[in-house]
Fold:
Amino acid sequence: MEQPQIFDNRELSWLKFNERVLEEAQDTKVPLLERLSFISIFQSNLDEFFMVRVGSLYDQMLIDKNAKENKTNMTAKQQLSKIFDRVRQLEPIRDITYKKIMEELEKSHGLKHVTFKNATPDELKYLDVYFHHEIRPLVSPLIIDKRHPFPFLNNKQIYTIVHLDSKSSVKIGIIPNINAIKRVILLAGGKRFILLEDILLHYADEIFENYKVLGKTLIRITRNADINENEIQFDDDQDGTFRDVMEILVKKRKKLSPIRLQLANTLNPVAFDYLCKMLELNENQIFYSKAPLDFSFVYSFNDILKDKSLTFNKLVPQTSSSVSRRTSMINQIKRKDLLLSYPYENIKSFIRLLTEASYDDSVVSIKITLYRVAKHSQIIDALVNAAENGKNVLVLVELRARFDEENNIGWSKRLEEAGCTVIYGPKNIKVHSKLLLITRKTKDGTEYITQVGTGNYNEKTSTLYTDLSLMTANVEIGLNALEVFNSLALGHLVESSKHLLVAPNCLQNKVIDMIDNEIELAKQGKPAYIGIKINSLSDKKIILKLAEASKMGVKIDLVVRGICCLIAGVKGETDNITIHSIVGRYLEHSRIYIFGTHERCKIYISSADYMTRNTVRRVEVAVPIYDIDIKERLWNMFSIIFNDNVKTRIQQPDGTYKKIKPKKDELPLDSQIYLFNKAYERAKLVQEQSNSSNISSTVGQPQDDSFFNMFLKQD
Structure:
């Protein structure tokens, strides 16, 4: 008898996620400009997918064409074939969706994507003048033939390709898009526009006026970006630092081989074959588009239209109702654990903590792991300030954070210059944890303030991603965090930890132990429950253990935003597992682990998804929630998210996803909007209570907190 299929392929599962993003662009309840944003997100997601995942599969195919992935047993070639088939199904949907949205915007607001075919006579005259005066002087065309080698084409840049008549060989003209000119060119009235590449394509015949043009099109290539930093030959005896090596790596990535070619329309076979030969691409890697090749330009429409009905209502992250604005953050955390929930609550309370610590005379050291930070980072500023104030500041900067390498290299230099001790992750292991440890020496002895988060120390993403941040003065958690930092400083990995779950050695095994505990309770006929919210699920060991738990009668609720290699609802295998996915206004990014029923549950928040890259190939940290109030808050939060009936898709037993709708007797519940409204309500209540009781600025403020008095004046 054939074994029921409970696994989905990782790459195909990711494409299902990106399809859910595209569905948001199709949703008529979403404002029009936001729908365009979802198209752009769909496209940029796909770009990165080709650069990283498709690139990796091509590398695998070259190394070992018979190698199979461990869940669906597909070879790299088989995976690529299915990927290309699915992308070719999705991209026409994207093109049609863009067309429909633009038609609606034209009808309601006069915004029109103009082409030379539908431009008015006056617009054609204007474009002719504009081309000759503004564009033509900046055009840098190239001729490619036997005497002129094929040039390097930049990743994701748009080029005009022209097939020129030649008696002796294939002759190609290339016109790069001009970075000095804005891509969106507004016409009379300010709402009709044309794209720069469309103008260059139209005037290509004139640009190559000495040649007969046989054909022309727009192209855009995507390059493989899958460089494995672990393959870098680096040892302690060679000249230069690990940072120097990473700088070389980043430059190397920009030169990697093309992995995809997008075309606006076809070229004749001769020119097409020549282009594919020069780029070393086969037919499977060629994709045609009836829409623009790059959708990043759609964000400029916000400035053109300036109509609030076209975008989401502005929501402002609130100060957490658990946090007093008039009291030292350190003293508040000493009294009670604090939890911040982004983007509903703002990151300012955390920045206050870090800034306060940078001035506090009792603080002797600050240790932090940085993976991705904002370009203009207040967190970096606070760390620099702390070092300049004589604190011992240890910063682990992960230079291998994909596509943020250059940014992190720059920050590491600034931190070093300020006097911080900068270290990097262990060999072959990325540090993805979000961990901060503040150590204080007071009259009462050594004190620790520990912060563990699910998201990066990044002010920008804290307003766009849903994340959680726990701040605690628990000494034992602080000692566990200290062990993590000491191990990283010595180039070691934590082997065991009493309170924190620390990958790669003591997270996956402990998660499996807690699932086993629920299995044992279920065997005894007792209620057993697991609730997990993560971004991705692909760890085979955990998947098999969840399937085992399902068979034993454990009720399992999963909220998995993206990749999900487990298929729920398979008869006799995963009947007790329900998988939801939420794609909405904000990117779901928080990770919550719940083991046990309400009255006895263990709850963790973590930086780790249930992917082998997280559980056994990275340094990750999960922190237990011991505060009863926070525990209850997270339980309720998970329940709200799981019961979302507006932005939720529920996975079907065949691996597809179906968007659910409120039942006749149900009120609509958009979990993100609900949680934002609750943050507003709590903030309003705190303000009203403050006003009614006429609380002075000093009430609740420690008498001996001289630092905070100074800090408050600055604030």
Q: What stands out?
A: The longest helix spans residues 76-109. The chain has three domains: 10-310, 329-492, 502-675.
